[in-house]
Amino acid sequence: MSESLPLSVLELATVGSGQSSADALAATTRVAQAADRLGYTRLWVAEHHNMPAVASTSPPVLIAHLAAVTERIRLGSGGVMLPNHAPLVVAEQFAILEALHPGRIDLGIGRAPGTDQQTAIALRRDPAALSADDFPQHLIDLLGLFGDPRVEGGLAERFRATPAAGSSPQVVLLGSSGFSAQLAGHLGLPFAFAHHFGGPNTLTAVQLYRDTFRPSPALQEPYTIVTANVLAAETDEEARRLALPGQLMRLALRLNRPRPVPGVEEAQADPERAAAEAMPSNAIVGDVGSAVARLHQLAADTGADELMLSASTHGVEERLRSLELVAEAWGLAGQGRPAA
Fold first, then answer.
1. Closest by alpha carbon to 183, among 124, 130, 138?
2. Which residue intervals define the domain Luciferase-like in the entry (predicted)?
């Protein structure tokens, strides 16, 4: 039954109107600690650059902080954009995280830039490196650096991610297309599909992943994580009101006019409110009963092994309350709400 399906959290460290980067990172810290207490399986942070609404520019730095202030939950990247970095650098960063917090570190890998082209050039320093053609080989090099016995040659012949590894982070391939689904399947890696992007290809991609899956030292059977935008509140009306800031932020990204997440009252008066509300969306927004029902349906439709929830709104209290409501209704084995 889907009630036993693990739930996890995708946290973007969003910067709201009137908030600083420090405010956003403090909010993400509270979300991680709440997710840990409530029984969520993992929390991932994403790599984005040069965006006024996202403070998570360096996942390994943020993961190190969050792992140090939580106890049980797995922490990881959703994801590190591998074309932005040398595989050896990524391997060393996550090997250190795994050594500090063994058994709790995930390395979610993506092949998109996570930013605009000019920023991508600044990160990579060479315009010729903007192509993702080398991504499969870089991913294989990364697996080799973590000791994957299937990998012969490449960087692993000369380098180690850390001198004496006791364990390795779990590598998960992220994607929103058939390319990543097939690559994850061929390499026998867990696959996380970005359903929260709103594209129409979720069912096709997850089935393609399962059809192409080959058992590996990392994984004997396919494992699919499906992400979703989820905002639950006490009533449908309140949930829709709280979701509007996130809708406006997504509209701004679509129009290439990135902005901080507006406040709830600010969003109500925004001149682009109607356009934001009219955008097609697969977000799950509503009272907790309807939100959980739609999560059950998403799990059934996709056959997901795990669902990962992202709550997009201005205030951290509203994000925390959404996680609490869903955790209680789903039956997560957490510790409940702290005493007042």
1. 138
2. 14-305
| Secondary structure element (H or E) that encloses residue 139, with its range | helix 135-145
Q: Is residue 337 part of a domain?
A: no
**Whole-angstrom Cα distance, residue 39 to residue 151?**
36
d(CA 46, CA 54): 9
Both tokens of 51, joined, read 């965006």
Residue 16 three-state SS: strand
**Domain count along the chain:** 1
AA letter at 246: G
Torsion 262-268-269-274 (CA) sign: positive
**What CATH code is carried by the domain that includes residue 9?**
3.20.20.30
Report d(CA 323, CA 83) in Å as an integer: 32
d(CA 171, CA 165): 15
Please give the distance of CA 71 from its chain centroid, rounded to a whole number. Answer: 20
Gap between the Cα atoms of 143 and 153, Å rounded: 12
Residue pair 98/169 in contact (Cβ under 8 Å)? The answer is: yes
pLDDT digits (tens, 9 = 90+) for 125-142: 666 655 667 899 999 999
| Residue at token pair 């999560």 | 295
- Give residue 173's domain range: 2-330
What count of other Cβ atoms lies within 10 Å of the Cβ of residue 265? 11
pLDDT in tens, 207-249: 999 999 999 999 999 999 999 999 999 999 999 999 999 999 9
The answer to whether 222 touches 207, Cβ cutoff 8 Å, is no
Single pTM value for the model? 0.93
